[in-house]
User: Fold these one by one.
Assistant:
Number 1:
Amino acid sequence: MELDNSQLLRFTTAGSVDDGKSTLIGRLLYDSKSIFEDQLEAVETTSKKKGHEGVDLALFTDGLKDEREQGITIDVAYRYFTTPKRKFIIADTPGHIQYTRNMVTGASTANAAIILVDARHGVIEQTRRHAFIASLLQIPHIIVCVNKMDLVDFSEEVFNDIVKQFEEFSSKLLVKDIRFRPISALLGDNVVNRSENMPWYEGSTLLHTLETMHISSDINKVDARFPVQTVLRPQNEEHRDYRGYAGRVASGVLRPGDEVTVLPSGFTSRIKTIDAFEGALEEAYAPMSVSVTLEDDIDISRGDMIVRSNNKPEASQDIEVMLCWLNNSPAKPRAKYSVKHTSNEQKAMIKEILYKIDINTLDRSPDGEGLEMNDICKVKLRTTKPLLFDSYRENRTTGSLILIDEDTNETVAAGMIV
Amino acid sequence: MSKYYLNYLDELESEAIYVLREVWAQFQNPVILFSGGKDSIVVTHLARKAFYPAKIPFALMHVDTGHNFPETIQFRDDLINELGARLIVGSVQESINQGRVAEEKGKNATRNALQITTLLDAIEGNKIDCAIGGGRRDEEKARAKERFFSHRDDFGQWDPKNQRPELWNIFNGKHFEGEHFRAFPISNWTEMDVWNYINRENIQIPSLYFAHEREVVWRNNSWIPNSEFLKLEDNEEVVVKKIRFRTLGDITITGGIESDADTVEKIADEVSTMRQTERGNRTDDKRSETSMEDRKRQGYF
């Protein structure tokens, strides 16, 4: 297959059935020929049963029993399709405010976000919320799809107007790359195939954008960070003294001979080998899973981080974090939580809520009393030991953390270190 | 200039290895659920890579319905030998003998649902706190909602509406006594990815996946293999066809497709032009629109 060298692109789509989100995903799958006959037959049958004309593309994204009954997306669903240029993973997330936590979840691993705007309604509260979450989670690329162009006579003016509305608002956000596409998911215009109804539009289709978007430079290649997941000690004949530190490169590039420091102990050494099943490697970069050996015998265990000696992460017990609360039970003031950050785990306390963000208006309210489900707040965390981190903006792996309630073992919050 | 990005297959592999290492680090007694099918074979191969040069640290657990393809059992035993790994077998026949479950009755009776009890008993009996599976999100709509680390309560049940959010690649495997986790390292792989990977890595798979001549019966739109467990209906006829299996499960529910693909490369080519989903030949999924979701809630794979 010619796919051999093609990359993986993960994107999220936030929105509701009303925005045409399900129709858009159905259209991408259908027009890229990723739908199987038995799926098509099932959807045709249901479409007929429901009295729809033709095939209701939205039905391709049907999920769990409850979701089907209510006609909404509740939880993130992952969908897959492949074109000769790329493999795609869609994190299909609900758009309603009540499901902010699921949007955040889907956004956390995405390379790109598709934000749907209904051409008839322009930029609304929901649009602003989706754009804010994409920027908060630092999704590198945003594609604003102005959908239902067929319902506004494919008007260039309407499209330009919405672009302007969006730009006025997005200038306040930290997004590097925003593109706009006028589409009709229902009819297929500019999704996979070029629109004949919008000759004024000279840009590329949505699929072409997704296929050609440059994503390899989004990964941090400067700061070498290697969180140790586990230690490999085979203790067999062939590898009697082997002691490999297994992990996934979070960022930067590692090479044998590099002078490294092991944190938090601070011992220095050099990388002896970088090993994979296939043999020794000349270098390792994100997101490769490898095993690293060092020249010196140092006590290293899970939770430690190997970094280049001349480029270290910050280390502090007091950190400021943008926190998204994910749990039904609100945050307990001054309660202790488990914090998981890379392969490290320790305890933390929310010392202070600095402000809460109204995710529809982006206004900050100092009234940060409680912290409830779907709230996004800036807080001060105090950890029991120094956390080794980079800011989330510079490093999505070493800048992210989760909080776990030890009474329930549930993941209650997602944090992005400021 | 060297490239500093991975191709899609390398990225999926690296992700799976990361998940397997997290399982090892976060649990006391994790096992790989091994069915003899291609997905669990790929997971086992990935585990071997993840811990090299150390030995694969997981035991392999097989839930044996007693209705096996002999080829699967042979393959399983050969692999266990080669890996030097421990094998745990949960036997559905034993569960029946002990009166834990009763055989289904009727024409389409299978032991598929019975496996749930055997699986949960084996997990409890062996004090397993994480069972690693080869489930993929592209297989089925209920599986599309699965996490990499998926929590099961002390009855082994899955609560799809109340799953822990899973952000970035930070996995929360914390659990109370009696609860366990299922981990799915190849969640993000599609059937095509699995075949491309088997091809690339030259992974050995049971001969059943390759086109071969076999006695079969046409039932529920696919070719069901003739075996001592199959009860023929009056209008059914045993014929010999050149077929292969797209998925492998219990011999009574796994349907074959007519095919000439006798190498992994040919299979990969065939799959890329396939117009039916993989599980379309599994009668266990055809019972109702939500049959997978229903079984998964109870503790199925």
Note: Residues 205-285 of chain B form one domain.
Number 2:
Amino acid sequence: MIVSWQPVVLVDIFGSVFSLLIGFWSIGYSWSWYREKADDAFRHYLFLLTIAIATFTISRSFGHIVKQFLLMSGDKGLWQEIAPFSGAVNTATFIVIFAFGVYFDRIRQIKQKADQDALGLATARARADAAFDSEERIRAVFDGLEDAIYLVDGDYQILFFNRRLQDLLPDIGIGQKCHQALFGNEQPCEDCRFHCLRTGDHFSYETEMELIAKRVSLTGIRLPWVGGDEVNMAVMRDISEQKRLEAQLLQSQKMEAVGTLAGGIAHDFNNLLTAITGYSDLMLLKLAQESPLRSDVSEIRRAAGRAATLVRQLLAFSRKQKAAFSNVDINDLIRNMQKMLGRLIGEDISMEMQLAVQNLPVLADPGQIEQVVVNLVVNGRDAMPAGGKIVISTEKVVIDESYCSLSAKVVSGCFVLLSIRDEGDGMDNELMGKVFEPFYTTKEVGKGSGLGLAVVYGIVDQHGGCIDIKSEVGQGTVFNVYLPLHDGADGLKHKKEDDGVAPGAGELILLVEDQEEVQRVAIAMLEGNGYQVCTAASLAEAEEVFAREKDKIDLLFSDIVLPDGSGIVLEEIFRASRPGLPVLMSSGYADEKMQWTLIQKKNLPFLQKPYSLEALLKAVQLALAGSGG
Amino acid sequence: MRLTKQVLGVGRLIVLLLFFILVAVPAHAVQVHGGIEGLVIHQIGHILFAGVMLFLLILGLKNHWCGAGWGRFRCFLKLIIVWNILTFTGHWLRLVIDDGKFVRLAGKTVGFRIESFVDAVFYLASLDHLILLPALICLAVALRQWKIATEDNR
């Protein structure tokens, strides 16, 4: 059977052409696949294998195409010359393919192993990165804390510490003993109980860090640690500022308590002094001018006057003295006092004024502020017996919240700072803590009452301000008085009192006074000067008298603090029944019970105890004349 | 395990060396390589080519090579083995086929006389591109799938 050779030729030609194309195609894919990861050994290998196979394909296909071309063109001889070369190339590629193929699996295994190793490395690196990130996060948390934290092992060696501790102790390092690095102790600290803690136990104590001059609270905790070990963690908090504020609060509370005590005593004293003063005045009226007793009674009267002054100072310290607030420019006030202050300090001491250029208005009682300035200047003078300089300065300052914590009455905002600086011996911390206490003095006996700075403290506090001292031994002292800056509204105005006292003309005065001795002396003084007096010792009793003598009473003269109510309530009741009834209020002190603010608001005439005969008669006269109320 | 692999590796080299020593004609610097030598070497090449492809095929089956491209690659291996066998057979048969079996017209072969099974096998072997072309297509497709899989993974 003869079959056509044409299919063989056609398959050979087309097969070679397509093989040639696919060979190049394969090389292209292999190359691009290999290039995507050129460091991949397996890809490199497969690329070379593909190159070998494709080379064979191209070589063979090219040879067969040439063969068919030469045979068809009748040049069989040339083909017979080329054929060995074509066949040899094909054979060589077979050998190369074999050589590559033999190591195919080996290289594949190496590749797998390398991939596994790479994966293992990547996993390990990821774990390490995660651990690092975790540690970084934990460290960030610890470093963000305000408290200093450190970990120590059983031998007190530091294993870890946060940034706060490093801020406090820049030289601290891992491996140092905590008692040495933090406290400078060769042995573990006495209060430390790390050595006897069990897991979960803790202890706390406060101690001084002398290395950095701070007071700290320290809490120690035993914690489980990595690898089944245990570790001690210490949390250390700087409480220096807290302790300082606590001490200041304690001092402030102590001053408040002393003030309350002084105010109470002053109240009783005023009642007694009213009786002493009043009876002295009555005796002086009754005694003949040539009487030898007259000088004795005058001494009693003067002593009572000095006692009244002391009581007023006590009241000033205890913030229970009545104050008449008005809009005062501190600079003007001080300028007006300059001449008087110059005389006060004497020739050995110079005085320098450094007053702010702008006005510094405060809502204050000018008299009391003058007393503050005088007391502080006198204090400065007394601190410089050999002479020196006193500097008075004013400026506008802003006080922040932290400073306000020093005083419950001070709120943050704009303040007038009045500073009085001397060049005296200065004070140590202990002395500075006591200077505002009443009756505390460093002066010789009889040279100072010990009330000067206490009065300053009381007045400044009553004005919603505060005072601090800056002083060092041998470096002089600065008293800084802070008073709230006022926005300019006018304060309360005072009435001017008229001079001259005239006796009564039989006017009936309802005297409401619960203190018997005061009542008696008031009756004596009023009746001895032309007035009629009916008395009551309480609000209820006064109401009964008023109901009975309603139309006859010309004046209500009442103590403000009564056992069953207030003189102001009495005034309201009586005036509801008899509008325009003249009234006169009196009291021994001016605390909340006395309701000084309400008295000012209602513009009621007021007579401060202890009062003299002259003061009483003048007040009664003014009240009857209707100049108040 | 490592030792076994090393032994196997050395073993392959020894087999190769023995093969060339025993089968190949001793070579000298001035030796002439004529006659049937070229065909023998070429046939050896086919054997090596087919052998290594078979080797890879067995390894693939044994180690369960799978995933994109490996199926086509196995197909390539099978086809290229068949092609090697076919062409190997064709080369040997050409030696025994009488030139008279080729029908020539004006010096060109236009037909072939199939008078025996050997003649038929030779004729079929001459159509080897019918096997080679699909084998190469499988290889190209395998390479393409590997490339695509790499891109997808990325």
Note: The radius of gyration of chain A is 52 Å.
